[in-house]
Amino acid sequence: MKEHVECPLFEKCGGCQRLNQSYSQTLVDKLAYVNRCFQKEKLPITVKTILEAKQNTAYRNKMIIGFQRKNGRISYGFYEENSHQIVAQTYCMMHSLLQNQIANRICHLMEKMHLLPFDEDKRVGLIRYVLIKEAVSTQEILITIVVGSEQFGGRNDFVKALRSDFPQIKTIIQNVNPRKTSVVLGDKEKVLYGPGYIQDELCGFRFQITSKSFYQVNPYQTALLYQTAIDCCQFTKQDVVLDAYSGIGTIGIIVSPFVQTVLSVENNKQASLAAIENVKRNQVKNVRIICDDATNYIKILASERAKIDVVIMDPPRTGSTLAFLKSLSELKPKQIVYISCGPDTLARDLSILLKLGYYVQKIICVDMFCWTNHVETVVLLSHKSTDKHINVKVDFDNEYGKKFIEQVIEKVDSNQPKEKVTYKMIQQYIEEKYGFKVHTAYIAEVKRSLGLPMYDAPNGVEKLKNPRSHPTPKMVNSIKEALKYYGII
User: Fold this and answer.
1) pLDDT tens-place string over residues 149-164
2) pLDDT tens digits, one per residue of 68-97
3) How many domains are contained in the chain?
4) 263, 182: one domain
5) Which of 359, 383, 407 is the last residue of a domain?
6) H-type helices in 250-393, by residue range?
7) CATH code of the domain in which 196 resides
8) What is the CATH number of the domain that holds 246?
9) Residue of 16, 233, 341, 365 marked catalytic
10) What is the pLDDT of residues 460-480, one digit of tens each?
11) How far apart are CA 109 and CA 154, in angstroms?
């Protein structure tokens, strides 16, 4: 760990904002910033702990560079803060030596092969950006070349030259982004070399990283971040966990050995497909990947009154949605682990959760983004609801007293709200009693034929392989028997 770092481009480059301070002071200031955000929302919370980075240079596993051509020369770099001007550079201390070497070589090849940078104003040229992703544990590299059109003359020679210089490059992707926007990646992609992904190892598991999937930028602190989240929460083998905004499924898979089931929901299709592969690759049996918007999916769970014991949420910097938080309060998980990279939106969402019946049990900051203004925060919230069971020991000298207590207990039990019967419960009953499985679509069909109220199933996104098929008479009878068993009919 370095206490001081000097960079000649500090005053121009927008990558780091706090290189004029000691590293210790940056940690103090980050804690103060988080607490100011809490005070602004009038939260009765003070965070006192921030976990420092043991490696605070060459820690970033992703480099995004733009290009410009001045005086006949091509240069690359990051954008100047609050502008769209490239600050030319040849080495960044926050990225690895390998990433810097590849960036330099790409710029040299563009010069040599006359591949011009894309001019956003004149709408001419070819290469807009290059993304370099590095899997630190395996040293595998993924290159994404963002171009202004699908025409990429000389790309075969370009790819061949890069591969020859850097055998660590396992995948090269062409991304097409013709729009006039500050968003880096476009919608269309084509794999020019390799499988379309790289693999990294984290907390004993192996993960597939694609061009568009989210993966924490600091692999050294990510393991610490996730371990902190696990340590905060007291998982049990009976817990059902919802992992919202799950990306490629990292934290859900890492948590899976401690719980019964993990439902990982992510709206990015590419990330969801990578998450499915990650589940298979790690031979994890109790993690289910759902490609859906987190807010939409939690609404489905709330309508089903699904059993969710713990919710882990890691939303983008803009935070969660009010609809998500309200549905979360309807599910009433015993614990929520909120991981945030935006203290202001975190404070806003915490103020809502506190009004919805939760309290902050533990809060810790993790310095994921060294020398910048940004900080990651892990918050453990628990529900304020009272215990469902109260043990009372009373001695009575006569039968009247004993009978009175029995009547009280009977009255309390009769007033307990009935547990919502879910599709999963019906499936389990049928499998245990009859030895075969039925699809939720068949259960829904039988319920509909009986005129019963319908609810969306948590796995409503699943579809029958043969949409025209119907339950057999044997299945219909077993479903009706299950509905009778649960008192539905």
Assistant:
1) 888 989 999 999 999 9
2) 998 889 999 998 876 778 899 999 999 999
3) 3
4) no
5) 383
6) 250-255, 269-281, 294-304, 322-331, 343-355
7) 2.40.50.1070
8) 3.40.50.150
9) 341
10) 434 445 555 788 888 998 988
11) 11
